[in-house]
Amino acid sequence: MAPESPPPLRPIEFEILLTLAGGERHGYAILQETEERSQGTLRLETGTMYRALRRLVEAGLARPTERRQPDPQDDERRRYYAITAEGRRAAELEALRLSRLVAAARSARLLPLGT
Amino acid sequence: MAPESPPPLRPIEFEILLTLAGGERHGYAILQETEERSQGTLRLETGTMYRALRRLVEAGLARPTERRQPDPQDDERRRYYAITAEGRRAAELEALRLSRLVAAARSARLLPLGT
DNA sequence: GAAACCTATATGCGCGGCGCACGTAGGTTC
DNA sequence: GAACCTACGTGCGCCGCGCATATAGGTTTC
Q: In this structure, is residue A114 part of a structural domain?
């Protein structure tokens, strides 16, 4: 009877949470920032992203924020989201898993040892 | 017209190639070694693994080996597979992508900085 | 000035990967 | 002999994903 580990994050869900870990973001900003970070190695489709974002909210890993600062620059259509405490824990777990995976890849000489 | 980057590896495909990077393996050994490496954070279903392995062969990233060493210890049912040069390149690319992702996670303080 | 593009969010649809169950089968352990 | 391990594989249903499309206001380009 293990403490019932939560279902693992899908790659796209982790990307979104990683972006949200940097602060509140709206959907379109998540799209841009994620693709920029991956430098073309990942293209995040709008349909995929908005649905994954909704899933994260339903799972309690992200939450919509009512933040509507009186900035006239701000596009009214934007809907902002923040990572939750549970979302952060899930992302930390996944990051740890990935770091071990990368270490294993380094041991297998799939990456330069010095990196 | 970018040089048409290949479709990215799925997580399970990367796990399999990572195991094969350590040398020839048969299917059941891939199952055991992968689960052992992930220490319970990933459970690789038999159906999923054998099908992913077949996909990798069809994509030219892995190949069956006719290796049948005269070891009487060896279970005759085993079917061995090896990583191909193309498979290694794909795994290296994915490992690089993941290492950058982990670095980003570290910057976002999802991982202890010292690790 | 309209055609093209950017920002911003969202749905429709079809394919296929995945989880789970099951099948086969010989060997070992209790 | 029942249960379990090794070893390979198929069947099936769900749903996540990629791609297309919808909506709509603002800006840039020809």
A: no
Residues 6+ apart with CB under 8 A from B92: A110, A111
From CA A86, how far away is CA A7, in angstroms rounded?
13
Question: What residue has its CA nearest to the C1' of D10?
Answer: B47
State whether A18 and B99 contact (CB < 8 Å).
no
- As given in the structure block, the two tokens for residue B62 are 């892995």
B114 domain residue, yes or no: no
DSSP state of A22: T
Answer yes or no: is A6 within a domain: no
- Global confidence as pTM: 0.91
Q: Measured CA to C1', what is the nucleotide nearest A47?
A: C10
The per-residue pLDDT string of chain A (115 residues; one tens digit each, 9 = 90 and over) reads 345 577 789 999 999 999 999 999 999 999 999 999 988 888 899 999 999 999 999 999 999 998 666 666 777 889 999 999 999 999 999 999 999 999 999 999 999 876 6
For Cα atoms A82, A20, A81, give the angle at the middle one, nearest 5 degrees.
30
Q: How many domains is chain B partitioned into structurally?
A: 1
Which of B79, B45, B46 lies closest to B64, judged by CA?
B79
Q: Which CATH number covers residue B103?
A: 1.10.10.10
Q: Domain containing B59: what range?
A: 11-107
Assigned domain for A113 exists: no
Contact status of B97 with chain A (Cβ, < 8 Å): yes
